[in-house]
Each structure stands twice: as structure tokens, then as C-alpha cells.
From TrEMBL:
Compartments, as annotated in UniProt: Cell membrane
Mode of membrane association: Multi-pass membrane protein
Name used for this protein in its record: Drug/metabolite transporter (DMT)-like permease
CC annotations in GO: plasma membrane
Keyword terms of this UniProt record: Cell membrane, Membrane, Transmembrane, Transmembrane helix
Principal place of residence: membrane
Residue ranges occupied by any EamA domain in the UniProt entry: 6-139, 149-279
Transmembrane segments: 37-56, 68-88, 94-116, 123-139, 151-170, 177-198, 213-230, 242-259, 265-287
């Protein structure tokens, strides 16, 4: 798979996440955050399990205990990010949450340098800032006073960034679909533990929100996160973060189609910034790559 094809998969993942935003926020009106995470994760795991089994049958080398533990650790990171975002959305505005979640755009290359000593291409830094500015403009171009929920969303952004980086490391095993199954199974187990402990278990609420849970479980979780894991095998985490940030762009697009929402001029500028950032990280590294010098034979 070429890097262009991988980035297109990440763009598709961002589109699915953008579509799922309405379903996610609607479900939260009837069901607790931990129960929501647990049920959607169970659905996600079972929806892609057949593909993971097929992937394992084709694999030339089997996974070991260390691989599964690493996949589960990524699931723990994913759960923390999901939980912080879900709980934060209860006490902050969508505008603030949309922008503050986008902080992972900057955190991915920064943490990549600090943790893995992986320096990205120079174009990543201005493109990350430009995409972050685009998300800010899409969110309305303003932030209200920071509340407890805002700090939770920022806390979650750190774990979103860490999850992107760890997937980049885990993909060395060559089993992205199995990785997705294990990480969602981990989220499901932890989610149910918290849901039972906090008294969030309400199967009638699950029945009411089954459409939202089915969409977020199969598509927003199972399909989109698997596309992320596959796409990241052939591109760098900082580039992946920029393409995944298209979630904000597609959320605005589908909001206009299905909810009759209209973007302001400032919002359109935000869309343009995200789009230009994605083009730049794809095209500029190709244009600036050193071409091999021709060998002149005497």
C-alpha cells in the first residue's frame, strides 16, 4: 500500500468519525458514559472479529503474549481518552470540546520526539498548527471560560495522541485488525467494570439508544479505528494525526446536510486550513525528497 492510499484510509476514518458525532452526542442524553463506551466497544469487537480471524489465518508468524499485552495497553490508553472525552462533554460546550480535542495534533509530534526520538518532516509543525487553527475556526473561533469538562477533554487529548503513537509502534507486528479487536475488548471490560461500580448499568437505556450504539460500535469504532490501524502501517503518526483531524471538517459537512447547520465565513476558512494542511503533508515531502543522482559511466 502506498502512503497516498494509507492517508486516504485515514481520511475515510475521519469522515466516519465526523458522521458519528451526532449519534454519540445523542446517545449521551440517555446512557451513562462508561456504559456507552462498554457497549459500543463490545459491538466493535464482534463486528471485526471475523476479519481478525482471517488475518490471523493468513499471517506467516503468530503473535506472542507480549504482542497481546501491548495491544491491551493500547486499549487502556484508548479507554482513558474515550472516558475523558465522554465525561468532559457533559460539562463543557461542543465548541470547546472540538477545539481542545484537536490539541492532539500538536501533542503527536511533540510526544514522538520526547518518547521515541522520532523527528518528523519539517512541514509537520506548521501544518499541525494550521490544522489546529482550522479546527478552532470550525468550532466558532472562540472559547468560553474553561470548566472542569474542558480540562478533562484536554487530558483526553493527551491519550489520543499517545494512542496514535503506540499504534505506530504496534503495527510492526503486521496485525492491525487483531490490534483493533484486542483494544476494543479491553475498552469493553474496563467500561463494564466502571459501569457496574458506578451503577450506570441500565439495559432499558441501551434499548433506547440501540441505533446510536450500533452506528458508533460498528462504524465509528470497529471500522474507523481499524482503518486507522491499517493506514498507520504506511505513514507516520504526525501525518496520520493531521489526516484524522478531518473529523472536524466532515462533522461540519454532515451537520450542514443532516441538521441544516450552516458554516460561517470563519468556519469556511477553517475548512480550507485543514484541507490545505492535508495536501501539504502529502505533497511537500515528495517535492523536497532528494532525488538519486545519476551515475555517469566513463
Amino acid at each position: 500500500m502506498s502512503r497516498l492510499q494509507a492517508n486516504l484510509l485515514l481520511l475515510l476514518a475521519g469522515m466516519i468519525w465526523g458522521m458519528g458525532f451526532v449519534a454519540q452526542s445523542t446517545a449521551m442524553a440517555s446512557i451513562g458514559p462508561f456504559m456507552f463506551i462498554a457497549v459500543r466497544s463490545v459491538i466493535a469487537s464482534f463486528s471485526i472479529l471475523p476479519m481478525a480471524i482471517a488475518e490471523g489465518n493468513r499471517a506467516k508468524q503468530s503473535l506472542n503474549r507480549r504482542d497481546y499485552l501491548f495491544f491491551a495497553a493500547i486499549g487502556l490508553v484508548l479507554f482513558t481518552g474515550l472516558a475523558a472525552q465522554q465525561i468532559g462533554l457533559q460539562t463543557t460546550s461542543v465548541t470547546n470540546a472540538g477545539f481542545l480535542t484537536g490539541l492532539y495534533l500538536i501533542l503527536v509530534p511533540v510526544l514522538g520526539v520526547l518518547i521515541f526520538r522520532a523527528w518528523p518532516h519539517g512541514i509537520i509543525w506548521p501544518c499541525s498548527l494550521a490544522a489546529l487553527a482550522g479546527i478552532f475556526l470550525l468550532s466558532g473561533g472562540e472559547l468560553s471560560a474553561l470548566k472542569q469538562g474542558d480540562w478533562l477533554v484536554m487530558f483526553g487529548a493527551f491519550f489520543w495522541a499517545l494512542q496514535v503513537l503506540l499504534i505506530g509502534q504496534a503495527n510492526r507486528s503486521g496485525r492491525p485488525i487483531t490490534l483493533s479487536v484486542v483494544q476494543f475488548a479491553t475498552c469493553a471490560v474496563i467500561g463494564f467494570i466502571f459501569a457496574f461500580t458506578l451503577g450506570e448499568v441500565d439495559w432499558s437505556a441501551v434499548a433506547v439508544t440501540w441505533k446510536e450504539l450500533l452506528f458508533t460500535g460498528v462504524f465509528s469504532s470497529g471500522v474507523a479505528f481499524t482503518l486507522q490501524a491499517i493506514g498507520q502501517r504506511y505513514t507516520t503518526p504526525p501525518q496520520a494525526a493531521i489526516f484524522l483531524s478531518s473529523e472536524a471538517l466532515f462533522a461540519a459537512f454532515f451537520g450542514a446536510i443532516f441538521l441544516s447547520e450552516r458554516l460561517s465565513f470563519v468556519g469556511l476558512i477553517g475548512c480550507a486550513l485543514i484541507f490545505v494542511s492535508m495536501l501539504a503533508v502529502e505533497i511537500i515531502p515528495i517535492l523536497t525528497a532528494k532525488k538519486p543522482q545519476a551515475v555517469v559511466t566513463p
